[in-house]
Give the backbone structure.
Amino acid sequence: MKKTSSPHIRTRNGTSRIMRDVLIALIPAVFAGTLIFGLRALVIVLLCTVSSVAAEFFWKFLSHQHMALSDCSAAVTGMLLAMTLPASVPYGIAVLGSAFAVIFVKEICGGLGQNIFNPALAARAFLLLCFPRALTQYPAAGSSYPLSKMSDIVSSATPLHEMQQRILPEASLWDMLIGNIGGCIGEVCSLALLAGGIYLLARKVLSPRIPLACLGTVALLTLVFSKSGYPLEWMLYQLLGGGLILGAFFMATDYASSPVTPRGRLIHGAGCGALTVLFRYTGIFPEGFTYAVLLMNAASPLIDQLTAPRRFGIRKGATE
Amino acid sequence: MKKTFHGGIHPADKKNLTDTSAIFIPPEPDRVIIPLRQHIGTACEPLVKAGDRVKIGQKIGGGSNMQLPVHASVSGTVTAIGPMPHPGGGEVPAVIIENDHKSEFSDQIVAYPDPKNLPQNDFFRILHDAGIAGMGGAAFPAAVKASSAQSRIDTLIINACECEPYIVSDDMLLRTEPLRVLSGTMLLAKYLSPARITLAVEDNKPAAIAALKAHLHEFPDIQLNILPTHYPQGSEKQLIQALTHREVPAGKLPADVGCCVFNPSTAAAVHDAVYDGIPLIRRIVTVSGEALEAPRCFLAPIGMRFSDLIEAAGGTKKNIGSIIAGGPMMGIAQETSAVPVIKSTNCILCLPKKEEPPQPRCIRCGKCIEVCPMHLQPLYLYRSEISADHASLEQLHLSDCIECGCCSYICPGRLPLVERFRAGKKAIKEAKRK
């Protein structure tokens, strides 16, 4: 009889199930993106997913590592990156971004669970610096950008562009919810993203700490420091625009690059929210979530150290 | 305030796997193996030698206060005294008795003549002489625990949580003989004089709760606390936290926060010892698991081999992978089924073969921190253990780990957390000895 160590039972919910759940949670947003921006959006999503998986294969082959594609984590990285790209982005840029995310952000740090920065957002930041035009020209909702045509981008202003001029956007709040606005593939339809987020919370893949702290901080700050005569509307547009919902549920919550302690997660979420508002108000880009998350990623190890749990049995009034 | 503790998990309780229609009596074993150490402490000295005839209840091992006596559980002949495999691991000297199937009782079994006016010192001596050790798993000598807690505590807790999956031993005891438990509890209360006596049960035992409620009016001092099912609620520190909101600090005992905790089987054994003079010679054992033909509960003599009880429960199925003494969360896997039932054996679990887990890998999901009832950070402990960083392990309070297994259970990356923590504790101890 083999002598195994206790516990002798384990939950069936392994890493690959978590990754599959994240992929499932993104399906509504991919579907919405395809409806809004046409078939090209779907092609970009598939291209990013496939090239991320291929990049991981390539890296593991080169470095003689055990093949561990079954956990789907590379697919998650690729799909998340695609969410942050406009449907009009050239195919080559999408492939380059996916390869960068997997190899330079994730694998070089040691692979799954070891990366310091969120792979999808770090790759987006990289692409934003290299190809600012391709990344910031957004097709309008319903524009159905052609699959093969590479020029003539009919750029549309996103609601956050308009808000940089201290005015409420033309699109209604309902448009913001259903995604009838210009923007990236996976950030426009807030309803689809919320559905995915709630699914992840229900499956206990995520604890609500990071998304709630993040959205709550943005809500509070934009309400208090409103730049419009209608602070409530201003706040709602800020919450629903610029990929904040996507970021709060799918980016800031990345396990590897965010703190692990419960209090650390609250600080992380609040930090992402506060920096986003700061960058939106003072930066040259209308949205600020990408850099907010990357900065907070860098602070995660420190936050973890500072928020270590209180030792059991050590507190005032321990004996009542 | 809500009665709960920090962290914990909710594994499937699997308690309905076992036939709970009765506590079954197994066929008399032909031979019993009675280890001379069945408690936390040092092994006792044998009081018999090979060739001696012994009767049921006869003291066959004894010694000082920390050498808890052991008794013959069958009548027959001592065939040998020597090291035998022990369910706690390794080998321990044991008395082997060949059963003569005459079931003769020793004349050492004498009920105390006047149990109503039993002096305190006699009470503690009876608990010691009856060989009573905690029957919930840790097997701490009851007399030592009770005498060190007397006049220091305000809360006496009977821990009937039985939070480990599969195990129904305490549940069955409460269903069938609540009076023995309640009467034993009142005996303990009489000599510990707590302000509050509480019996804690989890809400997945409705039959036991009903049986208790039918008799509680005879015991107005005992308060019944029905807690939501939550592992590891039966862990002493966690139960104290749930019931009193007090935390037992590292290195301290429950009595240091005014509590003393006993298992219901232990309370029943106290009753038997005082009123009937019967030492601890048998106990209820749940024999369960998916790799067993007919899971059921037995009232088994101490010293009966696991293999005999497994056979009495219909034998194992072909898919048998491991035999465990105790529950699936904290039990100890056995190399052989020839080990005997000891005072703390509440369960024998036969689990099917498992697939080899994939390569372990931490994804930093943080679930281990959420579930740790001791406020530890298992993922960082694991990292320090792998790099043998003893200073960091102590800084992260490795010694606080109660090895409840919640972190390993929940880990999606399949890290062998508890296994490494146990190895780490051992390595630190060895390094300090040098």
Q: What stands out?
A: Chain A touches chain B at residues 1-11, 13-15, 17-18, 66, 68, 70, 73, 112-113, 207, 255-256, 258-262, 265, 308-315, 318-320 (CB under 8 Å). Chain A has 14 helices and two strands. The mean pLDDT of chain A is 89. The CA atoms of residues 43 and 147 of chain A lie 8 Å apart.
